[in-house]
Amino acid sequence: MNALNTPNDLTSLFEKRDGLKSQIDDLQQQLKIVNNSLKDMFHDTAQMQLAQQGKDFGQTTINSGDFKVTVDFKKRVEWDEEKLLAVLNNMDEDTARHLANVKYSVSEAKFQNATPDIRARLSESRTVVLQGTSVDIKRREDG
Q1: Alpha-carbon dihedral 51, 53, 54, 58, rounded to 10 degrees
Q2: Residue 88's CB: how many other CB atoms inside 10 A?
Q3: Is 0.85 topped by the overall pTM?
Q4: What separation in angstroms does the CA of 52 have from each of 55, 57, 82?
Q5: How far apart are alpha carbons 108 and 35 in whole angstroms?
């Protein structure tokens, strides 16, 4: 029996799924409150420990009674592309190639709006990979 031949009474699955989603939302809110409390308690101490190591970012562990609390100050690096390009252009080519990463891509909207001949040429370098599948269910509104 495939999905097209199954009985159309999805009420129990819908209600179970809806209830679980609500519980997950509630638990995520509670977890956020607990995590924020831990951050408030250990933020300054963790920052001082990292500073003693000469770091602004990274992971450090604090012993507190029977517990080890690990605080991770994550970083995200952003580059000013114009300034970076100017610096790289003033280096010898081998050094610049060794240091820099270059990635070329075409936005999907621009690809879809390109002329057929350009799309055909670009398609040779394009791979589409399934990133996942999701399922949603909602009550239909009659009317």
Answers
A1: -80
A2: 15
A3: no
A4: 7, 12, 35
A5: 38
